[in-house]
Amino acid sequence: MQPLFRALTGVLAAGALAAGVLAAGTSAPAVETKDVGSPVGNATSPDAIDWKPCAQDAAAECGTLRLPVDWTRPSGETFDLAVARRKATDPDRRVGVLVVNPGGPGDSGVDFAVRRATSHFSADTQAKFDIVGFDPRGVGGSQPVKCSTELLNRRPSAYPRNQAEFDQLAEYNRSLREDCRQHTGPVFDHADTLSVVRDMDSLRRSLGEKKINYFGHSYGTLIGQQYAEEYGDRIRAMALTANVDHSLGAREFITSSAATAEDSFHQFVKWCKSTSSCTLHGRDITAVWDGLLARADQGEIRDPENPDQTLTANDITLFAFKAFYGPDWNELATYLAKLDAQERQAPRLTGGGPPQPRTSQAARQQTTAEPFHAVFCQDWNLRPKNYRQYAALTEAEFQAAPHMRGTPRVHAAVAGCIGWPEKVNNPQHRLHITDAPKILMLHSLHDPANNYAWATNIHRQTRETTVLLPYEGAGHSVYGRSDCTRDAVDDYLAELNLPGPGSRCAPAAQK
């Protein structure tokens, strides 16, 4: 596995938001798809998937399913949904299909099924289920959202200082949105999760299954929640980890996100103080951290792997935030110690940014896959209308996370929707599940990205249909944390056995 330091340096240097914002993950290589535009013959009877061995691993099968771009016009334009499957390794014990989504928005279910499922799920779960992953519309091989690379590289700061800079950010977002729409096609306007849910039910029918089992992580839990609302009677079992609360308003969303990032910082400090192997053990870690951010504000911290570049405070907090996902506390401590050891030097002027390089027409036509905001901005109505509203949100965010200076994840997400149309395809609402079996939810108490309060709030909204199992440790992923978490999911999926009232999973030993 690539070290965290090397994996994130490029992201930090660019000051960009990672594609897997609500779930740490990687984008899959695009799967070749057919051109969109041909009508669907009968949207109620989807075609069978023409399975063939996957190019990356012949033990898995890959295929596509043609579906409507706009489910309100089922005979209109179409796109190809990319799908992958690993059949149950013990057919005699097969229970059914396990549809999976690893999160994002922007992570690839095809990549998960082909490359990651065998190391993620237990051998017993692999024996009993066909593991099926799909790329949500706009992602990976499913008509991916693409935008001009040159325009993406000109993204302005997500921290405007006045109304004029707020207006510039809004204008940039409008230009980028139109650019992405032109490069992507009509699926761009229908990349919301509710459309994905309808795609998933068509996938169920194409697989010939009356009921499916589903495993969703992070943003994949929103797919699961809304599938349970729309098609609850078509679920046999559903396990959701690191849950997303889709009922929150802008202030609640951004402050709760900041608070859980700050909590993860304090968990890191607590670990380092009590662990002799921590590089910063015996020092005032909080003072070291605050000092680094102050020096970064002055342009005094260089990127260790690219000394010609300086790191901003936001770069450093983003690195730490991603480290909390693991959590990779040892590597974070080593990284911070390396930055702190840099000799003090004259700061570099950073105001205004470098002049934009001239690019050829060919370079301007190059595109990059960028699905995040196409999904997020159609799922969340979080549109500050002016600088005053945005500044109030930012102030509340910073108050909730004074050491992390808010949350780089959600701050950049909200900033990217400024200037978008007010209409949202799939706006927030309280969950209303009436016809579904018991759903198992797992969530870390110290999740850096998705606040544990999100899980408890969802559970309150759906108390008759959900069971919440807390994991008392840190980190974003939950399933593989311990025998307790893994066995709870495996036993539920296979036998529909749920944890008893008051059950909890103790934290695993943290290195």
Automatic annotation (TrEMBL):
Organism taxonomic ancestry: Bacteria, Bacillati, Actinomycetota, Actinomycetes, Kitasatosporales
UniProtKB keywords? Hydrolase, Signal
Molecular function GO labels: hydrolase activity
Q: Where is the signal peptide?
A: 1-23
Q: Which organism is it from?
A: Streptomyces flaveus
Q: Where is the composition biased (Polar residues)?
A: 358-367
Locate the AB hydrolase-1 domain: which residues?
97-296
Superkingdom as given in the UniProt entry:
Bacteria
Q: Entry's Pfam families? A: Abhydrolase_1, Abhydrolase_4
Q: Map out region (Disordered) in residue numbers.
A: 346-367
Family under the similarity heading: Belongs to the peptidase S33 family.
Tell me which residues make up the Peptidase S33 tripeptidyl aminopeptidase-like C-terminal domain: 411-505
- Could you tell me what this protein is called? Peptidase
